[in-house]
Amino acid sequence: MQLTLDSVACMLRAPSEEQGPVAAPLIPEGMDSREDEPRSCVVCGDRATGYNFHALTCEGCKGFFRRTVNKSTGPTCPFTGSCEVSRAQRRRCPACRLQKCLDVGMRKDMVLSPEALALRRAKQALRRAQQPLMKVRKEQNELVQTLLEAHTRYVATMFDQFVQFKTQNFLCGPLCYTVEDALHAGFQKEFIEWIFHFHGTLRQLRLQEPEYVLMAAVALFSPDRPGVTQREEVEQLQEKMALTLDSYIKEQRQQRPQKRFLYAKLLGLLTELRSINNQYWYQIQRIQGLPAMVPLLQEICS
Amino acid sequence: MQLTLDSVACMLRAPSEEQGPVAAPLIPEGMDSREDEPRSCVVCGDRATGYNFHALTCEGCKGFFRRTVNKSTGPTCPFTGSCEVSRAQRRRCPACRLQKCLDVGMRKDMVLSPEALALRRAKQALRRAQQPLMKVRKEQNELVQTLLEAHTRYVATMFDQFVQFKTQNFLCGPLCYTVEDALHAGFQKEFIEWIFHFHGTLRQLRLQEPEYVLMAAVALFSPDRPGVTQREEVEQLQEKMALTLDSYIKEQRQQRPQKRFLYAKLLGLLTELRSINNQYWYQIQRIQGLPAMVPLLQEICS
DNA sequence: GAGCGTTCAGGCGGTTCA
DNA sequence: TGAACCGCCTGAACGCTC
Lengths: 302, 302
Ligand SMILES: [Zn+2]
Ligand SMILES: [Zn+2]
Ligand SMILES: [Zn+2]
Ligand SMILES: [Zn+2]
Prior knowledge:
Helix content of chain A: 55-70%
Bound molecules: zinc ion
Largest interface: A-B, 75 and 64 residues
Oligomer: homodimer
Number of strands of chain A: 2
Distance between the termini of chain A: 108 Å
Largest sheet of chain A: 2 strands, antiparallel
Order of helices and strands of chain A: HEEHHHHHHHHH
Low-confidence stretches of chain A: 1-37, 159-175
Number of helices of chain A: 10
CATH architecture of the largest domain in chain A: Orthogonal Bundle
Strand order of the largest sheet of chain A: 1-2
Strand content of chain A: under 5%
Shape of chain A: rod-shaped
CATH class of the largest domain in chain A: Mainly Alpha
C-alpha cells in the first residue's frame, strides 16, 4: 500500500491551504455539529420529547399514561403480561404498556386529579372572563389620566393667575363672582339662587377629582352644544365619558359603599346644568339684547 | 368655569342598566364537587369529552360532525325533521343530528378544509420521508467524523515525526521522495511521471477533508487488496464508503455548485490509483526480483 | 423553556343495514 | 357479505402556567 498510503500521506497537505497544525480544521466542516438528541423514550424507545410525569418519554406514552392511569377499569393483558413495548408494538397491549410506564417510574400523582383539573379550568375561565374587563378598565384608567392631566394644567393655570394677580385685583373668568356682582350685571335673582343651589348640591357630593373631570367631560362633549357639526362623533365621545364615569363610580363603590346612586345623581345634575345653561343664554340675550351669536363667540363663551 | 363648562346632557341612558362586560360568576358549577363531570354533550346528552368544533360534545357527535359536515350530499330526514337526538336515538336520523349539531353552534369552519388537510398530509408525508433520510445523514456524519478523527491522528503522528526527526535526517515513509530519488531507486521514468500527474490532478480538485478521508477509505477497503479473505464484508464496507462519499458530495453541491461530476472524477482517480498500485507492484518485483510476497509482508507494505 | 392539559385528525375493530 | 357507519384510542400540534 505504499503508493496508496503514499498518496494519502502526500496529499494530506496538498489540498489543504497551508495549514500548519493539521489537527485544527476538524470542527468547522459543513455538516451539522449541533447535538442530535439521543434521548429516547424509556418506555417504548421512540424519540423522547422531554420528561413527562417524572420519566423521559415520547408524546405517545405521555398521552397514554395521562389517559389511562386514572381509569378505574384498567386494561388487561390478553397474553402472559410480558408483551414487548416498542414503538411498533406499543399499541398492541395497553396493559403491558401501562405496566412498563409504572415500572420505569412514571408517577400517577403527577397527573392532575379531577379536582385539580376542575380548579384549573375554573381559573382559566375566570382569567378569560376578566381579560376583556381588565382591558376596558385599563383603557378607562388611561382616559381618566388624560382628563386629569388636562384638568390639572387648566386649573394650575387658573390657580397661578389667581395667586399672581390677586394683589392686583385681577381675576380672570367667572370664578369668584358674588351674588351682588351677578345682580349688578342684570341677572335675575331667581337664576342666581338656582346656580348657587346647584353649586351647593354639587359640593355636597364631595366628588373625587376623577369623578369631577369625567362629569365635566360629559358636559363638554354635548352634541347639543351650539356650533357642533359632527354630532355623531361628539355623541359617541359623550357616551364613552358617561360609561367611564359609571364604571369608575361602580369601581369606587367597592371601597366606599356610602356613595349610592351617585351616578344617577350626577346625571340629574347634568340635566339641571343643561337647563341652567339654556336659562343662562336666555338671560344673556335679555341683558345684552344680542339677536344672534356668531359661532365663534358661542364657542368662546359656552 | 362652572358656567363656562356647563352644557346640558340629557342623552344618557337610564342608570338602572348595569350589565357591563362583567361576566357571570365562573365558579366550577358547585353542584358537583365530586369527580363526576357534569359535562354532557349539548347535541345528544352523552358524556362530553371536551370542546369539539366549538361545542361541548361527546366523541360520537364529534366524529359524526367531522365526517358529515363537508359532504356535498347531506342526509335527509325521512320524517318531519324534528327527530329526537339522544344517545339512544342519535343514529336513527343523521339529518336531524347534523341539524342539531349546527343549531348548538358547532362550527363547520373548524373542520380542516380539504386544502388544509392535503397540506397537513403532505407535511406528514414529507416528515415521514425525511426521517430515514435524516437518519442516514446522521449515520454518514458519524462515519465521516470517525474517519476524520482517525485521519487526524494518523496525520498528527506523521507530522510529529516529521517535525521531531527532520534535523536528524530521519524521514519515515515515502513522504517526500523526489523524482531523482525514485529514478535512482530504479523506477521507470514513465511510471514516476504517471504518479506525479495523478497527484497533480488530485490536487487540482481541492478536496475538503471529509471528501479526502472518504476517498482514502474507499481505496483502503478494496476487496482486491492482496491478502483479503472476507471479500464480501470488505466490499460492503467499500460500497458504504463510496455511497457516503457520493451523498456527501451531493449535499455539498447545494452550497458549492461548481464541483460538478466530482464523484465521477474521484471514481476515475480511484481506478487510476488501482492501476498505479498494480504497476507499482510490478516495478517492485522487477527491481527487487522477489518471486512472491508472503501475505504478511504484503499487508505491511500495501 | 419545561411540562402540564387540550384539541384536532386518523387508525381500527365493532356494528348496522342493504 | 360488504360497505358505510360508529366511537374508542392514539399521538402530533398547540396553548397555558410557572
Ligand atoms: Zn414512548
Ligand atoms: Zn400484554
Ligand atoms: Zn353527542
Ligand atoms: Zn330526522
